[in-house]
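Sample pair:
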Amino acid sequence: MTLSLSLAEARRLALAAQGFARAPRGAIRHRQLQAQIERLGVLQIDSVNALVRSHYLPAFSRLGHYEPELLDDLAWGKPKRRSLFEYWGHEASLLPLELYPLLRWRMQRAADGQGIYRQLAEFGRQQQGVIQRVLQAVREQGALGAGSLSTRTERAGPWWDWSAEKHAMEWLFAAGLVAVAGRRGFERLYDLPERVIPTAQLDHPEIEEAEAQRQLLLRSADALGVASERDLRDYFRLDASDAKARIAELVEAGELQPVAVQGWKQTAYSHGEPSIPRRVRASALLSPFDSLIWERERTERLFGFRYRLEIYTPPDKRVYGYYVLPFLHQERLLARVDLRSERAQGRLAVHAVHLEEAVLSEEALLALADQLQVLANWLGLERIQFNCQRPVAQRLQALGLQP
């Protein structure tokens, strides 16, 4: 029997699965932060630093003020503190260490030239001499950035204009032959896996590829609450053919339950019998790379909110702005806020506020003002500056926001 959910029930289920249903209590420590990341299963990493590096924002959106150094500890700190590792999860990601054995098949595929960028796969086939030279340097010297090994003399060009050593290091990383030991600024430092990944995960008995994919799909289902086939496979970026076969197996085994969601053309799935909260009262500003909204078609199905990243859109063609955070309030996405950290001036710049409806209620306005204040305080910025002349921005400015 297929379970039926209203769209409002699906939204609440998704928000609860993503960690928005319960307000945090007390100061946030490593344990609470780790629990939140384990719930999500993956934090996407992105290089844009217009506000703050994106991987810090999902925990802030759910937990409020926490010390970013806590996340640094979990990802790149002392070995006894680490509980996360970097790899290709949903794009470049931080993932709980318990998922490492579930991604060994992806590493093997990469070593075989599958599932990675064509340019990188071609390099792996043709440049094993460079790859082995770079790997030997890591063995001998320990954690290294790819730039420190570069032998190129000409000036670097666009992002994909990598040196041979950078290509080699990225191939080794995709193949699981090096791991990220830390970061220098935003540059990855690579070392041998046995010097980064704990023995329990590194020496874990091999998990057969299909079983690993099934477990990743169940993790996706837990993190999403209710999800279509596309939603489930996108979470850890599984191939469509693999995901369809594994989902069919999980349905047959009774581990995934088919769900009909009001207004959805696609069949959805949940992991077991869903527990739907009566309401979700969360308010939050969301990173463009937050797992609640990163699958844009799902965001439109769940919230009626069409969201596209405009970072790479020419300025004169942008509709909403460069770094736009959706504003979640009372189970709905009510606004988009284009924000920037102007660190030298000690201010949070609000370049634009776009509403999804004609007017923001007084309650929602106060919630948005509170989120801006908390965000500025968290970022250590002394004031908020409004560069937007829309009425909603004027209403916010009239509140006299001070972090």
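The two ends are 52 Å apart (CA to CA).
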